[in-house]
Design brief:
Elements (H helix, E strand, L loop, with lengths): L1 H15 L17 E6 L9 E6 L5 E5 L2 E5 L4 E3 L15 E4 L5 E5 L2 E6 L2 E4 L6 E7 L5 E6 L8 E5 L2 E5 L13 E3 L5 E4 L3 E5 L2 E5 L13 E6 L5 E5 L7 E6 L2 E4 L1 E2 L2 E2 L5 E6 L5 E5 L4 E5 L2 E5 L10 E6 L5 E5 L2 E6 L3 E4 L12 E4 L5 E5 L2 E6 L2 E6 L9 E6 L5 E5 L2 E6 L2 E5 L13 E6 L5 E5 L5 E6 L2 E7 L6 E6 L5 E5 L3 E6 L2 E6 L8 E6 L5 E5 L2 E6 L2 E5 L10 E6 L5 E5 L2 E5 L1 H9 L8 E3 L16 E3 L5 E4 L4 E4 L13 E8 L2 E4 L4 E3 L5 E8 L9 E7 L6 E4 L3 E5 L4 E10 L5 E12 L7 H68 L4 H29 L9 H8 L1 H6 L3 E7 L7 H20 L5 E8 L3 E7 L6 H6 L6 H11 L3 E7 ...
Parallel strand pairs: 61-67, 68-69
Antiparallel strand pairs: 1-30, 2-3, 3-4, 4-5, 6-7, 7-8, 8-9, 10-11, 11-12, 12-13, 14-15, 15-16, 16-17, 18-19, 19-20, 20-21, 22-23, 24-25, 25-26, 26-27, 28-29, 29-30, 31-58, 32-33, 33-34, 34-35, 36-37, 37-38, 38-39, 40-41, 41-42, 42-43, 44-45, 45-46, 46-47, 48-49, 49-50, 50-51, 52-53, 53-54, ...
Helix pairs in contact: 3-4, 5-7, 7-9
Length: 1022
């Protein structure tokens, strides 16, 4: 007993600890599940799928006749083992995702085991592997066929080898196909016969019924139920055994309504976690059997193929089916639809009412369809229905059904429709059906009709008590009851009205009439909700507020509104079905502009938007289910059984692609330098609705905040700098449950030679050295500039000292000597008089020499830009002495000159003129100033010339000629001196225009100006 209990607990733990408790709702038809098919003809993959499994990391694995595929819900990737390894055969027969996270692979050539990046082969001899299972203790068992050794068909993995069992261990077969473990820990092995037990003790079944023949596999698959029952798929000679059921020690053909186990060619089995048995056949698709009822689903219904190779139920409870034509996926949906394939008469639903007896009545084209106990029946025209077009439906407080059929209003009683007519015996509607039927607080029945003239009817005691024409309300179509008495009326043209006791009050919806009114609903607080194409308007206390896109609605068009048993509001909209909790609605009512939270069921949840023609468009049944019609089908949501997928999806970083080179993801990956484009591929493994999986990622070292790519499974970066990076990605499943831990990848980008630290240090050193050199150069430049200024000042002071010493001071000294000589004999008046005369002459000469020095100090800047006036003034002494004739000429117009250069030119010219006047002894002097491309000054006299030795070395104690040469050199000018004893002296200075001029040369020439005056006094040129 203890052993049995331990085995049972172990089996339950191995099932439920590894798998979340989710499953497919067995009360839905297979056609109502979410279904996706990947077909081989669509080139989804190569090879026929044979086996499916899921490893603990969340990946789904599909074994095909062409190899092994890994699937993340979006992408099929051909699996390649690392280091060039590969399974012994590309044809995959069996797969197992073990509890330790490893993957077992069975092929026609042997068994392989993939774990921690290593692939190990377990069959040194080529032997076919047909099935692999893991028992409650974690032991791996293998069924073998085409055995070429003597070890037997059943093997147990023991370390790195197989321990196989054969005839010596009580096994009555030479090959094995199916393999399963029951709740007591017994192994069931399908072979030419069926046997169960453990090595050394086996019990055999169907030894007589299953006669071996060529190509007969015998027992192809076994499924163990939680209550100890066993199902076995058999194939043999003679009577077709088909699917056999073992219970209470007895075997019997499994026969239930819709399924005959004796004749069905069952090939593969699965007992799911919800208690349903799935049977895959050779040619008849799949059967699902639950609570003794079977349902068939085949290729004509959408299955990828009718030959079934295998089943698998993943961690989220979804069902996978491998067929000869592809791969199929079935999942629960929050919204269940009912169409013609589920029993509707036609796909033209107009209205729906969930009645108190639990049945659901659907107004359809040509019929009223009734859904009771998940089965449809119909009342059709000519049989039960008194017309063709069914409009509004309604159930009153007595449980009686009212229906608008064609142009009349009918009450359904005692299995018959009785028509309600006007007092004159005519039908209610002239040209259109009854659009809406409601009951107010005083049990008045109100009905509105269409046509050219809309009318409102009040009915009591099955008689029309009042007919109200609605000429002032064009297109009045939708009704909602007043809890006291009266009725609310909404027109399709944005108007809301209230009618009671002959009084009609009309209000216009805000928005200027752009919206269309699609339905009306009286809320539990007696407010009125108007569903429009612009959102949901709420009328209460004399004002409207709007629930629209600004509040978080995914779209504006709302077809209907209804409350559930938990007081949540359900909206049927253009983009799906929306659930809003009352707490959120209360916040919206207080702050109509705020955004509120809501749950959206869209196309991935099987919501099918659409607008029906009549009321009610939605209805709530006594069991709390909400029913919708969309003009083509019936849909249902069960608010009390909306399971939430609380399993965070496993997140993986798969590979990096840099400049078209692929790297497998792994910590410590070092990427080459200078990568331009980086792509990081990641995924999250939630298969329920993979399109709703959302991601966030962040690259530490690059991204300042989390990036939100939505459902995209790649991250892109360009021109990453060298350094270390950490890439982190998190994901949420279809219900917004986040895996906050996510996946992390550490990698680095190597630097190029010029991006290395030593290169940066070298650059810093070089930059510092360059700055130091520039600093030193600048210091030298400043020193040279200061020295130049000091030299210039010193030269000027030296020149002044020379001039004062050679002229003015000598004259003063001579005057002093004359005065001293006269004072020696003060009594000699004649001598004193002569001395005074001589002193007067010498003082006059000192005055002239002092004036000359002052003229040489006059700054040229006081003369503006014109050298003509300054040089002319320098010749005045020569002219005033009367000893020299001076000819002065200027060629070209005056031009703007650099003041420093111009000053030096002036002083050179002044010195040349003065020397000619004082020292040359000439009778004539010519001064010429030429403004051309360059500036030229020429001073020529016809005096006695200059001694060659003086020209070369200068005169002792005199510095005039030397100073002229120094000034010319400083301004980049060229000074030439031509002299002879017969022709006099010519001094020429040429200064480049680029140095002295600030503007281009003038295009016109000035007239030659000649000033000739007086005689010049003879003297030598110094």
């Amino acid at each position: 007993m203890n052993f049995t209990r331990q085995v049972l607990l172990g089996v339950l733990f191995s099932i439920f600890a590894f798998h979340p408790i989710f499953a497919l709702d067995p009360h839905q038809h297979i056609s109502q599940y979410g279904h996706t098919a990947w077909r081989m003809q669509d080139a989804a993959f190569d090879g026929v799928p044979n086996a499916i499994t899921q490893t603990t990391d969340g990946y789904l694995w599909i074994g095909t006749t062409a190899g092994l595929l890994r699937f993340d819900g979006v992408r099929f990737v051909v699996w390649k083992a690392p280091n060039g390894q590969a399974p012994q055969d590309t044809r995959i027969n069996a797969l197992l995702g073990a509890s330790d996270g490893s993957l077992w692979i069975g092929t026609p050539s042997g068994l392989s085991h993939f774990q921690d990046g290593k692939l190990i082969d377990y069959s040194p001899v080529a032997v076919g592997i047909s099935s692999i299972i893991e028992d409650h203790a974690g032991t791996i068992w293998v069924a073998r066929y085409r055995i070429r050794d003597e070890k037997g068909p059943l093997c147990r993995v023991a370390g790195n080898s197989l321990q196989c069992y054969g005839k010596a261990d009580g096994i009555p077969a030479h090959y094995a196909v199916g393999l399963a473990e029951d709740r007591l820990g017994n192994l069931w092995v399908g072979s030419p016969v069926l046997f169960r037990g453990r090595p050394g003790s086996f019990e055999t079944y169907f030894a007589k019924e299953l006669k071996p023949f060529e190509g007969n596999p015998g027992v192809t698959d076994i499924a163990a139920g939680p209550a100890g029952s066993i199902w076995a798929a058999l194939q043999g000679v003679g009577p077709k055994l088909g699917l056999q059921h073992y219970a209470d020690g007895q075997w019997s053909s499994y026969v239930v309504p819709g399924f005959d186990g004796a004749s069905a060619e069952v090939h593969t089995l699965l007992f799911d976690r919800d208690g349903s048995l799935w049977a895959g056949t050779q040619k008849q698709g799949i059967y699902r059997i639950h609570d003794g009822v079977a349902e068939n689903y085949r290729a004509v219904d959408g299955l990828s193929g009718d030959t079934i190779n295998g089943f698998y139920q993943d961690h989220e409870g979804n069902l996978w089916v491998a067929t000869e034509g592809g791969l199929d996926f079935f999942r629960d949906t929050r919204v269940v639809d009912f169409s013609m394939r589920d029993g509707l008469s036609t796909n033209a639903t107009a209205s729906v009412v969930a009645r108190q007896d639990g049945s659901v009545w659907i107004g359809n084209q040509g019929s009223v369809d009734i859904l009771r106990n998940n089965k449809f029946s119909a009342m059709t025209r000519g049989k039960d229905l008194p017309g063709e077009t069914v409009g509004a439906l309604f159930e009153d407080h007595l449980g009686q059904l009212w229906a608008g059929v064609d142009h009349g209003l009918f009450l359904y009683q005692n299995g018959k429709f009785q028509e309600i007519k006007k007092p004159d015996g005519t039908v209610l509607a002239d040209h259109d059906a009854v659009n809406a039927i409601v009951e107010d607080g005083q049990h008045n029945i109100w009905a509105s009709t269409g046509g050219d003239l809309h009318h409102l009817f009040r009915i009591q005691d099955q008689r029309v008590q009042e007919e109200i024409p609605l000429e002032g309300l064009p297109y009045a179509k939708w009704l909602a009851p007043d809890k006291a008495a009266g009725v609310w009326i909404a027109t399709t043209s944005h108007q809301l009205a209230h009618y009671r006791a002959g009084h009609l009050e009309v209000m216009s919806l805000p928005g200027g009439g752009s919206q269309r009114t699609l339905s009306i609903y009286r809320d539990s607080d007696d407010s009125v909700l108007v569903a429009t194409s612009d959102g949901l308007f709420r009328w209460s206390a004399g004002k409207f507020i709007l629930l629209g896109r600004e509040n978080g609605l995914p779209c504006a068009s709302i077809f209907s509104a209804i409350r559930d048993d938990q007081d949540s509001l359900w909206l049927h909209t253009q983009c799906g079905i929306v659930q809003i909790a009352e707490t959120e609605l209360a916040q919206w009512r207080q702050q109509p502009d705020r955004e509120i939270s809501m749950r959206v069921f869209d196309a991935f949840d099987a919501a099918r938007p659409g607008n029906a023609c009549c009321q009610p468009k939605s209805s709530k049944s006594p069991d709390g289910k909400i029913w919708f019609v969309n003009g083509s089908m019936l849909q249902m949501v069960d608010p009390g059984h909306l399971y939430r997928n609380n399993q965070p999806p496993p997140v993986h970083i798969e590979e990096l692609v840099t400049d078209r080179k692929v790297y497998q993801a792994g910590d410590g990956l070092c990427l080459p330098p200078l990568i331009r484009d980086l792509q990081i591929d990641y995924t999250a493994l939630s298969f329920t609705v993979p399109q709703k999986v959302r991601f966030r990622y962040k690259l530490e070292g690059h991204d300042a905040t989390w990036q939100d790519p939505g459902s995209r499974r790649q991250a892109f970066y360009s021109d990453l700098r060298p350094g270390n990076y950490q890439f982190r990605v998190i994901a949420s499943n279809n219900d917004g449950v986040w895996n906050e831990q996510g996946a992390i990848l550490n990698f680095s980008v190597a630097p190029a030679w010029y991006q290395t630290n030593w290169f940066r240090i070298l650059c810093l050193v070089a930059a510092a050295l360059l700055l130091w050199m520039l600093y030193r150069l600048r210091v030298k430049q400043m020193a040279r500039a200061m020295n130049a200024r000091f030299d210039e000042r010193l030269a000027e002071r030296t020149r002044l000292a020379r001039e004062l010493h050679d002229t003015f001071l000598q004259t003063i000294q001579a005057s002093k000597l004359i005065a001293d000589d006269a004072l020696e004999q003060p009594s000699d008046s004649v001598r004193m008089h002569q001395a005074v005369d001589r002193l007067s002459v010498w003082l006059g000469q000192a005055t002239e020499e002092g004036r000359a020095v002052l003229n040489s100090l006059r700054a040229s800047t006081t003369q503006g830009n014109d050298l003509v006036e300054g040089l002319q003034r320098a010749t005045e002494d020569c002219i005033s002495s009367g000893s020299m004739q001076v000819a002065f000429s200027a060629i070209g117009g005056p031009r703007e000159m650099h003041p420093i250069v111009r000053d030096e030119v002036y002083r050179i010219g002044y010195e040349a003129i003065r020397n000619a006047c004082v020292h040359s002894g000439a009778k004539q002097m010519e001064v010429e100033l030429v403004y051309a491309e360059d500036l030229t000054i020429r001073v020529a006299d016809n005096g006695k010339g200059i001694d060659a030795q003086v020209t070369a070395k200068g005169k002792a104690g005199h510095f005039g000629l030397q100073g002229m040469r120094e000034r010319a050199a400083r301004i980049g000018g060229k000074l030439t001196l031509d002299t002879s004893a017969t022709s006099g002296t010519t001094i020429t200075l040429v200064v480049p225009g680029g140095i002295i001029f600030r503007k281009p040369a003038a295009t016109s020439l000035h007239k030659l100006r000649k000033l000739v005056s007086g005689k010049r006094r003879s003297s030598e040129l110094d």
